[in-house]
Design goal:
It is a single chain. This protein is an alpha+beta fold. The protein has 2 domains: about 5-15 and about 355-550, no CATH class; about 35-345, Beta-galactosidase, Chain A, domain 5. Helix content is about 35%, strand content about 25%. The strands form 2 sheets. Strands 1, 2, 3, 4, 5, 7, 11, 14, 17, 18 and 19 form an 11-stranded mixed sheet that branches. A 9-stranded antiparallel sheet has the order 6-8-9-10-20-16-15-12-13. It is elongated and about 105 Å long.
C-alpha cells in the first residue's frame, strides 16, 4: 500500500469532516419549534423584544430556591430610570459596571487588540449592542425578604476606579438598601489577572430574618459569524466532579432547559480563544441552569448557578462569595483557578495528546521567543520521534517504486486475468522481500498525533496575533499572500513524484489533484497550521529522497 496516499486520504477526510461540521452548524436541521407551554417554562410569556437587556426584562431571572417557590417573589427596587456606568481600569482590563444590577456591561482586554493593524482598539469580550449581546449578571433572590437582582439600582461612591501603580488590588463597592436590608456588592480586581472576586455582604438591620440565595449567570447571543473552514465550539459548558465537562449547546437550551445540582464546579460561556466563567466555592451547593429567550432580538442564551438559601438573623451579617474569570484561555492560569477549568481549551477527544504538545510548544517558545520558530522546533521533534516509523514507510515505498517497471510488465503480460496478476505480484514481493502493507501502521500511528497537534495549534490563544517573520504578522489567520499554502502545494507535488506511480490511471489522476485541493483548503487555514504542514513536508521529502536514492542505487536492502 502507498503510505503517503493513505496519509493524504486520511488528512483529506479530516479536512472534509471539519467542513461538514461547519456546514451542519450553519445549514443543518434546527430543533422543532417549542410549544407555548415549553416556552413559558424557559422564558416568561408576554415579554416584548427590547434592545436594553437590563430594562424591566424579567425573563432572565433564575427560578426561586426550592424552599420558597410557593411564595410570590418581590423584585425590590426595579425601575426603568437611567442607570450609571462606573468605569474600572486595571493593567489588563478596561470595563464598565452598570449600577442597574451592579453587573458588568462592557469589558475589554487590554493585552488583546481587535486586529493586528488596530493595536489601540482593545477586544471587547463583554458587550451589549443591537446585534450582539454578551453580558455578566449576578444578584440575590428571595421570596420573603428584600433582595437586589441584576435589575435593581445600586449606588456607587465613585464613577471611576483605576488600579494605581503602587497597588496590587482594586476594590469596587456598590450598595443597595431597602426596608432595613443593606447589600454591598464588591468586585475585587488583582494586578495582571483576569480573575475577579465577587462578594455580596448582606447587613440585616430589619426586624425579620433575611432568607435568600445568590445567582450568577452569563447571557449571550449566538455569534454573528463563524469560520467556514475552522469549526470551534461557541456555547455554554458546565463542570463538576460528577459529570466532569459537559457542553450545553444553544439548540439544546431551546429544546429543554438545563438543570443540574452541583457541589462546587463552574459554569462558563466559551468561544475561540476566550471564555467567561463563574466559579463556585468548593463546598457550595448550586443549581446549574440554563435559560433560552428566543423572543428577544437577538435571541439570548443564559447559563448560570444559583446557591442554596442563606439565613441572616436581624442585626447580623451574611456573605456570598464567587469567582469570575473573564479573559483568554491561558492553560496554566486556568489550572490554578479551579479543577477542570483548563478543559475549556477544547482539544476534543485527543486532549491526552494535545496537552503535552501544547506544553512542548510553550517550552520552545520560551527558548526562542517566537511562536513560528516554536512550531518549527516542535515539528522537528515530532519528526524525530517518528523517524524510524517514517523510515519503514519510505523504505517500503522506495522498494515499490523500484519494482514499478516490473509490475507494469506483469500487468501487460496478464492483462485482465486478475488471479494470475495477483499471484505474480505476490511472487515478486516475496522475491524482493517487499511487504506492501509494511508501511501502513507507521503512518496510521502518526495521524492521531497530527490531528492532536492541529487542535493544539488551533486552540492556543498565544498564537493569536503572534508574528512569525516577514509578511506573517499573525499565525492565527490565513497567509495574506498565500505563500505558505503554495509552498505546501509544491511540496506535496514533489512527494507525489517520489512515490511509486499508481497502476490505475483514475487513481493517478486523483492523486495528482490532491495537491491542488489541499492548497485551496489550506489557503484559508491559520498560517501557523500551514507552517507546520510545510515544515513537516520538507522534512519528509528530505528523508524520503535520501532513502529512495539509497535503495535505487543498491546501497540499502
Amino acid at each position: 500500500m502507498n503510505n503517503t496516499r493513505l496519509f493524504l486520504y486520511a488528512a483529506l477526510a479530516f479536512v472534509g469532516l471539519l467542513i461538514w461540521e461547519q456546514w451542519q452548524a450553519d445549514y443543518g436541521p434546527k430543533p422543532q419549534p417549542q410549544s407555548q407551554s415549553q416556552q413559558e417554562t424557559i422564558s416568561a410569556a408576554g415579554n416584548t423584544p427590547s434592545q436594553d437587556f437590563s430594562d424591566q426584562d424579567l425573563t432572565d431571572l433564575p427560578e426561586m430556591a426550592e424552599s420558597a417557590q410557593q411564595n410570590v417573589e418581590p423584585l425590590g427596587q426595579l425601575t426603568s430610570a437611567s442607570a450609571q456606568l462606573v468605569h474600572v481600569e486595571t493593567d489588563v482590563l478596561d470595563l464598565y459596571i452598570d449600577t442597574r444590577g451592579g453587573v458588568i456591561k462592557s469589558l475589554k482586554l487590554k493585552d488583546y487588540s481587535l486586529a493586528v493593524d488596530k493595536p489601540e482598539e482593545y477586544l471587547e469580550l463583554i458587550h451589549s449592542n443591537q446585534d450582539s449581546v454578551y453580558i455578566i449578571q449576578n444578584g440575590l433572590r428571595s421570596s420573603t425578604s428584600p433582595a437586589p437582582t441584576h435589575h435593581s439600582i445600586f449606588n456607587a461612591a465613585q464613577t471611576s476606579y483605576r488600579l494605581q501603580d503602587s497597588d496590587e488590588v482594586l476594590r469596587v463597592p456598590l450598595s443597595w438598601t431597602e426596608n432595613g436590608v443593606q447589600v454591598v456588592k464588591t468586585y475585587q480586581f488583582t494586578r495582571g489577572d483576569y480573575l475577579i472576586k465577587v462578594n455580596h455582604r448582606v447587613n440585616n438591620q430589619s426586624d425579620q430574618e433575611w432568607v435568600g440565595s445568590q445567582y450568577r449567570q452569563i447571557t449571550r447571543s449566538r455569534p454573528l459569524k463563524t469560520s467556514k473552514f475552522l469549526y470551534t465550539y461557541t456555547g455554554a459548558v458546565v463542570y463538576n466532579e460528577e459529570v466532569k465537562y459537559e457542553k450545553v449547546k444553544f439548540d439544546d437550551m431551546e429544546e429543554q432547559s438545563f438543570k443540574l445540582t452541583s457541589n462546587g464546579g463552574w459554569a462558563a460561556m466559551i468561544q475561540h480563544y476566550f471564555l467567561s466563567a463563574w466559579v463556585a466555592e468548593p463546598e457550595e451547593t448550586n443549581l446549574m441552569y440554563s435559560i433560552a429567550n428566543t423572543k428577544r432580538n437577538p435571541s439570548t442564551y443564559t447559563i448560570g448557578m444559583r446557591s442554596q438559601s442563606l439565613q441572616v438573623q436581624p442585626g447580623q451579617q451574611g456573605e456570598f462569595n464567587s469567582k469570575l474569570f473573564v479573559g483568554p484561555k491561558l492553560v496554566n492560569r486556568l489550572e490554578e483557578i479551579s479543577p477542570g477549568l483548563e478543559l475549556t481549551v477544547d482539544y476534543g477527544a485527543l486532549t491526552f495528546l494535545s496537552k503535552p504538545l501544547y506544553w512542548l510548544l510553550s517550552f520552545f517558545n520560551g527558548i526562542v521567543g517566537n511562536w513560528g520558530f516554536a512550531i518549527i522546533l516542535l515539528t522537528l521533534l515530532v519528526k524525530a520521534v517518528f523517524f524510524k516509523l517514517s523510515e519503514t514507510s519510505y523504505k517500503s515505498m522506495a522498494k515499490m517504486r523500484k519494482v514499478g517497471p516490473r509490475l507494469k510488465t506483469l500487468k501487460e503480460r496478464y492483462g485482465d486475468d486478475r488471479q494470475k496478476m495477483n499471484q505474480a505480484m505476490m511472487d515478486l514481493y516475496k522475491t524482493e522481500k517487499i511487504n506492501p502493507m509494511g508501511g501502513c501502521l507507521p503512518i496510521l500511528v502518526q495521524i492521531p498525533v497530527f490531528i492532536a497537534l492541529y487542535w493544539a495549534l488551533l486552540e492556543s490563544v498565544e498564537l493569536r496575533q503572534a508574528p512569525f517573520i516577514l509578511w506573517i504578522t499573525d499565525l492565527s489567520v490565513k497567509d495574506p499572500y498565500f505563500v505558505l499554502p503554495l509552498i505546501m502545494g509544491v511540496s506535496m507535488l514533489i512527494q507525489q513524484k517520489l512515490n511509486p506511480a499508481p497502476p490505475d490511471p483514475i487513481q493517478a489522476k486523483v492523486m495528482m489533484a490532491l495537491p491542488i485541493i489541499f492548497t485551496v483548503f489550506f489557503a484559508f487555514f491559520p498560517s501557523g497550521l500551514v507552517l507546520y504542514w510545510v515544515v513537516n513536508n520538507i522534512l519528509s521529502i528530505t528523508q524520503q529522497y535520501i532513502i529512495t536514492k539509497r535503495i535505487e542505487s543498491g546501497q540499502e536492502k
